Protein backbone atom coordinates (compact mmCIF):
# COMPACT_ATOMS: atom_id res chain seq x y z
CA UNK A 1 0.00 0.00 0.00
CA UNK A 2 1.37 3.41 -0.96
CA UNK A 3 2.05 5.86 1.84
CA UNK A 4 1.02 9.18 0.29
CA UNK A 5 0.81 12.45 2.22
CA UNK A 6 -0.78 15.73 1.18
CA UNK A 7 0.56 19.06 2.41
CA UNK A 8 -1.06 22.50 2.47
CA UNK A 9 1.24 25.41 3.34
CA UNK A 10 -0.65 28.66 3.96
CA UNK A 11 1.63 31.66 3.47
CA UNK A 12 0.96 35.36 3.46
CA UNK A 13 1.90 35.75 -0.21
CA UNK A 14 1.20 32.29 -1.63
CA UNK A 15 -0.52 28.99 -0.96
CA UNK A 16 1.49 25.87 -1.71
CA UNK A 17 0.14 22.34 -1.89
CA UNK A 18 1.86 19.08 -2.73
CA UNK A 19 1.35 15.33 -2.70
CA UNK A 20 4.38 13.16 -1.95
CA UNK A 21 5.48 9.67 -0.98
CA UNK A 22 8.53 7.58 -0.19
CA UNK A 23 8.82 4.64 -2.54
CA UNK A 24 10.04 1.19 -1.43
CA UNK A 25 13.82 0.87 -1.41
CA UNK A 26 14.15 4.67 -1.72
CA UNK A 27 15.07 7.14 1.02
CA UNK A 28 14.32 10.40 -0.73
CA UNK A 29 11.08 12.29 -1.23
CA UNK A 30 9.09 11.57 -4.38
CA UNK A 31 6.81 14.42 -5.46
CA UNK A 32 3.57 13.32 -7.13
CA UNK A 33 2.16 16.79 -7.72
CA UNK A 34 2.61 20.37 -6.56
CA UNK A 35 0.97 23.72 -7.15
CA UNK A 36 1.30 27.33 -5.99
CA UNK A 37 -1.26 30.13 -6.19
CA UNK A 38 -1.21 33.70 -4.84
CA UNK A 39 -2.73 33.94 -1.37
CA UNK A 40 -5.80 35.98 -0.52
CA UNK A 41 -7.37 36.58 2.86
CA UNK A 42 -4.10 36.20 4.81
CA UNK A 43 -2.12 39.03 6.39
CA UNK A 44 1.16 38.53 8.26
CA UNK A 45 0.42 34.85 8.77
CA UNK A 46 -3.07 35.45 10.15
CA UNK A 47 -6.36 34.68 8.42
CA UNK A 48 -8.22 37.93 7.75
CA UNK A 49 -10.91 36.85 5.28
CA UNK A 50 -11.69 33.11 5.60
CA UNK A 51 -13.97 33.03 2.55
CA UNK A 52 -11.26 34.36 0.23
CA UNK A 53 -8.70 31.97 1.67
CA UNK A 54 -11.02 28.96 1.26
CA UNK A 55 -11.56 29.86 -2.38
CA UNK A 56 -7.81 29.90 -3.02
CA UNK A 57 -7.33 26.62 -1.13
CA UNK A 58 -9.90 24.97 -3.41
CA UNK A 59 -7.98 26.31 -6.39
CA UNK A 60 -4.57 25.06 -5.30
CA UNK A 61 -5.68 21.57 -4.19
CA UNK A 62 -7.62 21.08 -7.43
CA UNK A 63 -4.46 21.91 -9.34
CA UNK A 64 -2.40 19.38 -7.35
CA UNK A 65 -5.01 16.69 -7.91
CA UNK A 66 -4.90 17.39 -11.64
CA UNK A 67 -1.11 16.93 -11.71
CA UNK A 68 -0.94 13.86 -9.46
CA UNK A 69 -4.14 12.08 -10.47
CA UNK A 70 -4.81 11.53 -6.75
CA UNK A 71 -7.72 13.24 -4.95
CA UNK A 72 -6.55 15.88 -2.45
CA UNK A 73 -9.22 15.36 0.20
CA UNK A 74 -7.14 15.59 3.38
CA UNK A 75 -3.84 17.21 4.32
CA UNK A 76 -1.25 18.13 6.88
CA UNK A 77 -1.63 21.88 7.27
CA UNK A 78 1.43 24.07 7.91
CA UNK A 79 0.73 26.82 10.43
CA UNK A 80 3.24 29.68 10.42
CA UNK A 81 1.80 32.55 12.41
CA UNK A 82 3.07 34.91 15.13
CA UNK A 83 0.41 33.15 17.23
CA UNK A 84 2.95 30.36 17.71
CA UNK A 85 5.16 30.31 20.79
CA UNK A 86 6.93 27.99 23.19
CA UNK A 87 7.37 27.38 26.90
CA UNK A 88 9.83 25.21 28.81
CA UNK A 89 8.62 23.40 31.91
CA UNK A 90 10.38 21.20 34.48
CA UNK A 91 8.56 18.33 36.16
CA UNK A 92 9.46 15.70 38.79
CA UNK A 93 8.00 12.30 39.71
CA UNK A 94 8.94 9.50 42.10
CA UNK A 95 10.31 6.44 40.31
CA UNK A 96 7.58 3.78 40.39
CA UNK A 97 9.49 0.51 40.65
CA UNK A 98 10.62 -0.80 44.04
CA UNK A 99 14.06 -1.42 42.55
CA UNK A 100 14.39 2.30 41.80
CA UNK A 101 15.07 1.60 38.14
CA UNK A 102 13.66 4.12 35.66
CA UNK A 103 11.22 2.52 33.23
CA UNK A 104 9.56 3.84 30.05
CA UNK A 105 6.41 4.20 32.17
CA UNK A 106 8.25 6.67 34.43
CA UNK A 107 9.35 8.69 31.40
CA UNK A 108 5.75 8.86 30.20
CA UNK A 109 4.64 9.93 33.68
CA UNK A 110 7.17 12.74 34.01
CA UNK A 111 6.24 14.04 30.55
CA UNK A 112 2.54 13.89 31.42
CA UNK A 113 3.24 15.71 34.69
CA UNK A 114 4.84 18.62 32.85
CA UNK A 115 2.41 21.29 31.78
CA UNK A 116 2.62 25.04 31.23
CA UNK A 117 0.77 26.99 33.91
CA UNK A 118 -2.86 27.96 33.40
CA UNK A 119 -1.71 31.55 33.07
CA UNK A 120 0.75 30.64 30.30
CA UNK A 121 -1.96 28.63 28.53
CA UNK A 122 -4.59 31.33 28.75
CA UNK A 123 -6.14 31.42 25.26
CA UNK A 124 -3.47 28.98 24.06
CA UNK A 125 -3.26 25.27 23.30
CA UNK A 126 -0.35 22.80 23.13
CA UNK A 127 0.48 21.71 19.58
CA UNK A 128 3.60 19.65 20.28
CA UNK A 129 5.98 18.78 23.09
CA UNK A 130 9.53 17.42 23.36
CA UNK A 131 11.41 15.98 26.32
CA UNK A 132 14.68 17.90 26.15
CA UNK A 133 16.63 16.27 28.97
CA UNK A 134 16.22 14.18 32.12
CA UNK A 135 17.89 13.93 35.51
CA UNK A 136 17.84 11.15 38.11
CA UNK A 137 18.14 12.50 41.67
CA UNK A 138 19.52 15.76 40.26
CA UNK A 139 22.80 14.06 39.38
CA UNK A 140 22.67 13.56 35.65
CA UNK A 141 21.50 15.37 32.53
CA UNK A 142 20.81 12.95 29.75
CA UNK A 143 18.48 12.12 26.88
CA UNK A 144 17.45 8.59 27.86
CA UNK A 145 17.20 7.82 31.60
CA UNK A 146 15.67 4.33 31.21
CA UNK A 147 17.62 1.74 33.20
CA UNK A 148 19.20 4.17 35.67
CA UNK A 149 18.39 3.89 39.37
CA UNK A 150 17.32 6.50 41.87
CA UNK A 151 14.34 7.92 43.74
CA UNK A 152 13.16 10.74 41.51
CA UNK A 153 13.11 11.47 37.80
CA UNK A 154 13.06 15.05 36.50
CA UNK A 155 12.49 16.31 32.98
CA UNK A 156 12.74 19.57 31.07
CA UNK A 157 10.01 19.68 28.44
CA UNK A 158 9.54 22.12 25.57
CA UNK A 159 5.94 22.87 24.59
CA UNK A 160 5.05 24.41 21.22
CA UNK A 161 1.83 26.38 21.71
CA UNK A 162 -0.52 28.53 19.69
CA UNK A 163 -3.15 31.13 20.39
CA UNK A 164 -6.42 29.32 19.86
CA UNK A 165 -8.37 31.91 17.88
CA UNK A 166 -5.89 32.33 14.95
CA UNK A 167 -5.44 28.57 14.73
CA UNK A 168 -9.21 28.03 14.76
CA UNK A 169 -9.63 30.54 11.92
CA UNK A 170 -7.03 28.76 9.79
CA UNK A 171 -8.61 25.36 10.49
CA UNK A 172 -12.07 26.70 9.64
CA UNK A 173 -10.88 28.06 6.28
CA UNK A 174 -9.29 24.72 5.35
CA UNK A 175 -12.39 22.75 6.36
CA UNK A 176 -14.63 25.16 4.46
CA UNK A 177 -12.59 24.35 1.34
CA UNK A 178 -13.52 20.69 1.77
CA UNK A 179 -10.10 19.50 2.97
CA UNK A 180 -10.00 17.30 6.10
CA UNK A 181 -7.08 17.98 8.43
CA UNK A 182 -4.69 15.14 9.29
CA UNK A 183 -2.67 17.40 11.58
CA UNK A 184 -1.40 20.95 12.01
CA UNK A 185 2.39 21.30 11.71
CA UNK A 186 4.30 24.31 13.17
CA UNK A 187 6.10 25.94 10.24
CA UNK A 188 9.55 26.41 11.90
CA UNK A 189 9.74 22.69 12.75
CA UNK A 190 8.82 21.76 9.18
CA UNK A 191 11.48 24.04 7.68
CA UNK A 192 14.11 22.66 10.04
CA UNK A 193 13.22 19.11 9.03
CA UNK A 194 13.86 19.91 5.39
CA UNK A 195 17.08 21.86 5.78
CA UNK A 196 19.15 20.82 8.79
CA UNK A 197 21.65 18.00 8.52
CA UNK A 198 21.94 15.63 11.48
CA UNK A 199 25.29 17.17 12.51
CA UNK A 200 23.77 20.64 12.54
CA UNK A 201 20.79 19.51 14.64
CA UNK A 202 23.18 17.87 17.06
CA UNK A 203 25.78 20.65 17.37
CA UNK A 204 23.28 23.51 17.41
CA UNK A 205 21.89 25.46 14.46
CA UNK A 206 19.32 28.09 13.53
CA UNK A 207 16.92 28.03 10.61
CA UNK A 208 15.74 31.45 9.49
CA UNK A 209 12.85 31.52 7.03
CA UNK A 210 12.20 34.99 5.60
CA UNK A 211 8.71 34.89 4.13
CA UNK A 212 6.71 37.69 2.59
CA UNK A 213 5.29 39.01 5.86
CA UNK A 214 6.71 36.74 8.57
CA UNK A 215 10.15 35.78 9.85
CA UNK A 216 10.28 32.21 11.18
CA UNK A 217 13.03 30.94 13.49
CA UNK A 218 13.84 27.59 15.02
CA UNK A 219 16.92 26.71 17.06
CA UNK A 220 17.88 23.03 17.24
CA UNK A 221 20.40 21.53 19.63
CA UNK A 222 21.21 17.93 20.52
CA UNK A 223 18.80 16.81 17.81
CA UNK A 224 15.78 18.52 19.38
CA UNK A 225 14.10 21.92 19.06
CA UNK A 226 15.45 24.35 21.63
CA UNK A 227 13.28 27.36 20.79
CA UNK A 228 11.17 28.87 18.02
CA UNK A 229 9.69 32.24 17.15
CA UNK A 230 7.70 33.92 14.39
CA UNK A 231 7.79 37.68 13.90
CA UNK A 232 5.34 39.72 11.75
CA UNK A 233 8.15 41.06 9.61
CA UNK A 234 9.24 39.82 6.18
CA UNK A 235 10.55 40.42 2.71
CA UNK A 236 7.48 42.40 1.61
CA UNK A 237 8.71 45.25 3.80
CA UNK A 238 11.87 45.41 1.69
CA UNK A 239 9.84 45.22 -1.52
CA UNK A 240 7.62 48.09 -0.37
CA UNK A 241 10.61 50.28 0.46
CA UNK A 242 12.19 49.58 -2.95
CA UNK A 243 8.91 50.48 -4.68
CA UNK A 244 8.84 53.81 -2.84
CA UNK A 245 12.55 54.51 -3.19
CA UNK A 246 12.70 53.85 -6.94
CA UNK A 247 9.08 54.75 -7.73
CA UNK A 248 8.37 51.44 -9.48
CA UNK A 249 5.40 49.02 -9.27
CA UNK A 250 5.51 46.35 -6.57
CA UNK A 251 6.07 43.58 -9.12
CA UNK A 252 9.14 45.41 -10.45
CA UNK A 253 10.33 46.12 -6.90
CA UNK A 254 10.15 42.39 -6.07
CA UNK A 255 12.23 41.62 -9.14
CA UNK A 256 14.80 44.26 -8.14
CA UNK A 257 14.99 42.87 -4.60
CA UNK A 258 15.89 39.36 -5.80
CA UNK A 259 18.03 40.22 -8.82
CA UNK A 260 19.57 43.60 -7.83
CA UNK A 261 18.96 44.68 -11.44
CA UNK A 262 18.27 48.38 -10.99
CA UNK A 263 16.42 50.81 -13.29
CA UNK A 264 19.79 52.40 -14.02
CA UNK A 265 23.37 51.37 -13.37
CA UNK A 266 24.50 54.52 -11.59
CA UNK A 267 26.43 54.47 -8.34
CA UNK A 268 23.67 56.56 -6.78
CA UNK A 269 21.05 53.88 -7.54
CA UNK A 270 23.32 51.11 -6.30
CA UNK A 271 23.94 52.96 -3.04
CA UNK A 272 20.22 53.66 -2.58
CA UNK A 273 19.38 49.98 -3.15
CA UNK A 274 22.05 48.88 -0.69
CA UNK A 275 20.84 51.31 1.97
CA UNK A 276 17.19 50.24 1.59
CA UNK A 277 17.92 46.52 1.81
CA UNK A 278 20.44 46.78 4.63
CA UNK A 279 18.18 48.98 6.74
CA UNK A 280 15.38 46.41 6.67
CA UNK A 281 17.73 43.46 7.11
CA UNK A 282 19.25 45.14 10.16
CA UNK A 283 15.77 45.35 11.68
CA UNK A 284 15.18 41.64 11.01
CA UNK A 285 18.52 40.43 12.26
CA UNK A 286 18.22 42.54 15.38
CA UNK A 287 15.06 40.55 16.21
CA UNK A 288 16.96 37.33 15.61
CA UNK A 289 19.95 38.36 17.71
CA UNK A 290 17.69 39.50 20.56
CA UNK A 291 15.99 36.09 20.50
CA UNK A 292 19.33 34.25 20.54
CA UNK A 293 20.54 36.37 23.47
CA UNK A 294 17.32 35.67 25.35
CA UNK A 295 17.84 31.91 25.09
CA UNK A 296 21.60 32.14 25.70
CA UNK A 297 22.69 31.02 22.24
CA UNK A 298 24.03 34.21 20.62
CA UNK A 299 27.25 33.29 18.79
CA UNK A 300 27.06 29.74 20.18
CA UNK A 301 25.60 27.66 17.34
CA UNK A 302 28.37 25.74 15.54
CA UNK A 303 25.92 24.46 12.93
CA UNK A 304 25.36 28.04 11.88
CA UNK A 305 22.39 29.74 10.23
CA UNK A 306 20.47 28.09 7.40
CA UNK A 307 18.48 30.60 5.35
CA UNK A 308 15.17 29.90 3.65
CA UNK A 309 12.02 31.58 2.34
CA UNK A 310 11.30 33.66 -0.73
CA UNK A 311 13.53 36.53 0.43
CA UNK A 312 16.47 34.25 1.12
CA UNK A 313 17.44 34.92 -2.51
CA UNK A 314 18.41 38.53 -1.76
CA UNK A 315 21.96 38.99 -3.11
CA UNK A 316 24.56 39.02 -0.35
CA UNK A 317 22.21 37.72 2.36
CA UNK A 318 24.58 34.98 3.51
CA UNK A 319 27.41 37.44 4.04
CA UNK A 320 25.09 39.87 5.80
CA UNK A 321 23.96 37.06 8.11
CA UNK A 322 27.54 36.10 8.98
CA UNK A 323 28.39 39.66 9.90
CA UNK A 324 25.18 40.33 11.85
CA UNK A 325 25.04 37.11 13.87
CA UNK A 326 28.73 36.11 13.94
CA UNK A 327 27.78 32.59 12.86
CA UNK A 328 28.36 30.46 9.74
CA UNK A 329 25.56 30.98 7.22
CA UNK A 330 24.32 29.21 4.11
CA UNK A 331 21.32 29.13 1.82
CA UNK A 332 19.41 25.94 2.61
CA UNK A 333 18.37 23.11 0.33
CA UNK A 334 16.14 20.10 0.99
CA UNK A 335 18.50 17.20 1.63
CA UNK A 336 16.01 14.50 0.62
CA UNK A 337 15.10 15.87 -2.79
CA UNK A 338 17.25 15.79 -5.92
CA UNK A 339 19.37 18.92 -6.17
CA UNK A 340 18.01 19.74 -9.62
CA UNK A 341 14.35 19.35 -8.70
CA UNK A 342 12.24 22.43 -9.37
CA UNK A 343 10.87 22.33 -5.81
CA UNK A 344 14.37 23.02 -4.44
CA UNK A 345 13.34 26.67 -4.63
CA UNK A 346 13.42 28.15 -1.13
CA UNK A 347 9.70 28.95 -1.41
CA UNK A 348 8.99 25.22 -1.02
CA UNK A 349 11.26 24.29 1.89
CA UNK A 350 8.57 24.42 4.57
CA UNK A 351 6.06 22.35 2.59
CA UNK A 352 8.76 19.77 1.81
CA UNK A 353 9.72 19.59 5.47
CA UNK A 354 6.10 19.03 6.48
CA UNK A 355 5.94 16.13 4.01
CA UNK A 356 9.11 14.64 5.50
CA UNK A 357 7.73 15.02 9.03
CA UNK A 358 4.58 13.19 8.01
CA UNK A 359 6.57 10.37 6.41
CA UNK A 360 9.19 9.96 9.12
CA UNK A 361 9.51 6.66 10.85
CA UNK A 362 8.71 6.32 14.53
CA UNK A 363 12.31 5.45 15.31
CA UNK A 364 13.47 8.96 14.37
CA UNK A 365 14.79 10.64 17.54
CA UNK A 366 13.77 14.17 16.65
CA UNK A 367 10.56 13.81 14.72
CA UNK A 368 7.36 11.80 15.00
CA UNK A 369 5.66 9.70 12.37
CA UNK A 370 2.08 10.36 11.25
CA UNK A 371 0.42 8.07 13.78
CA UNK A 372 2.08 9.97 16.62
CA UNK A 373 1.28 13.28 14.98
CA UNK A 374 -2.39 12.39 14.75
CA UNK A 375 -2.43 11.63 18.45
CA UNK A 376 -1.68 15.32 18.98
CA UNK A 377 -5.17 16.11 17.73
CA UNK A 378 -6.34 16.26 21.30
CA UNK A 379 -9.75 17.40 22.43
CA UNK A 380 -8.89 21.11 22.37
CA UNK A 381 -7.84 20.93 18.70
CA UNK A 382 -10.75 18.74 17.61
CA UNK A 383 -13.11 21.20 19.24
CA UNK A 384 -11.85 23.91 16.88
CA UNK A 385 -12.80 21.97 13.76
CA UNK A 386 -16.38 22.73 12.62
Walk me through the topology.
Elements: E1 4-10, E2 14-21, E3 30-38, E4 42-43, E5 46-47, H1 50-68, E6 74-79, E7 84-94, H2 104-113, E8 124-136, E9 152-163, H3 164-176, E10 180-186, H4 187-195, H5 198-203, E11 205-210, E12 215-221, E13 224-231, H6 235-246, H7 250-259, H8 267-294, E14 305-308, H9 317-325, E15 329-331, H10 349-359, H11 370-375, H12 379-382
Helix pairs in contact: 1-3, 4-10, 6-7, 6-8, 8-9
Q: Would you mind describing this structure in some detail?
A:
With 386 residues, the chain is α/β, with parallel strands linked by helices. It folds into three domains: 4-82 and 164-195 and 338-382, Nucleotidyltransferase, domain 5 (2-Layer Sandwich), CATH 3.30.420.40; 84-163, Dna Ligase, domain 1 (2-Layer Sandwich); 200-331, ATPase, nucleotide binding domain (Nucleotidyltransferase, domain 5). The protein contains twelve helices and 15 strands. A five-stranded mixed β-sheet has the order 3-2-1-6-10, with helices on both faces. Strand 4 and strand 5 form a beta hairpin. It is globular and about 80 Å long. 42% of the residues are buried. Mean pLDDT is 88; it is low at 362-379.
